[in-house]
């Protein structure tokens, strides 16, 4: 039986920053999850100030939920998963933040999502929500593919499905492409009667607005619409290839997360679809595991010295 | 011999508003082009104030160039071709402008481009620059197809070529798509070594930045790169279909204008390529012809009363 170490008592906070919200979970090895909190957008690529504010909002909410006094924030060891911190400049900027925690360990949102999905173990994860990307980590070696943002990357994602469908609808309405029932669906959705009427409502819209169209594309594909089917199958082929690329480093598990992971699964290569397992924990718990491991490594280094 | 009418002496100003600049030409039937001027961006969809300012800058420059006193702006009959005024709300807004001209006649930039290309006569025009679209006018009946903006429309345009190429490069660099020499070209262009390095420099960039990549795509296609060839041929197929759609109303002439019209011509359907004729006059002269016709019609209406 292991001696009860200080880290059994240590309070951790796992924080998962996302484009629309920030989730925080307070956890101790001894007592499990003590409280959770929710903040606003926390993608540092879209604004650093806003991100730090959302982190603090979710932190304070989680502390209140856990029945902790706000001053005890200094006792928390934080794990933080944020988009874009694979860029060294952004990693440095956030590392320099005068955060209130006892310690703060920073990594990408992909990394914490992966650690969470496999409950701290090695594995691979594919995220298909508004955007899409893949990440795998095996024995400390990690790879990531895809992402790259809307409209140049994120193939197979909600925003990509929406954009491809809109392009097909505009071609159809101009008499320059095959007919698709998506045209009637989009005209109804936008309350518009022409290509121009549909197009002007989407001009300059962010990727999240395109992602809102994805539901209709999936629906039309289910109904056998050839244009929608071609789009969905093209996206699913990409996701399958992404999975194969991740499996090259032999991760023991593969999970899919995000709003489109469930509807896309039926279109994946059967070989890939049968490999997909449920994510065991959410990304904010991945951030907790990440902080636990980082603290342990630090303590071991100190012990060796 | 026709009697010398008042409109022989009348001074006209033709104004062509574009996304990056505004061109003005002062003209009289008797004396031809008297002066030209150049202003800043004049796309009312991107800002009405800025557009009106650019119109006045180009107008004043053209007046100085013509040796006219600025007070005589009240004697000019203006023809104005602007993007987006096919939207009734925008047409109305600009019509309500307290302009300094004697009269002002407003239509779309596509319409004035078409009138200019065919020196006042009927015809069709395809614009392939940063964006793409088609317009035809025969006996007062006009049609227009395409456009719809980046990234959802404008197929076959410079921005579209650049975006499709970037998508292919990111797939290649991730090992998720066919190899293309565009990848080396783009890495060199962006001074980047990875997909991430290339992608982050294009994130959130406007369509004009994507259009700057088009030259490399055309070059790679000429060199026989299969990925670039597929993209360019797909774009050219769309432009050919757009031309066929415009030819349905039997315009007597077809012209192409914009920075990509020359390089794209060799990839068009041979049947279409041989129909393409040089534009005879620029869009700002189209705006002059438009104003001349509109004034004449008004005078005839008054005469009938």
TrEMBL record, chains A, B:
It comes from the Bacteria. CDD domains: ASKHA_NBD_GspK-like. Residues 13-288 form the ATPase BadF/BadG/BcrA/BcrD type domain. This is ATPase.
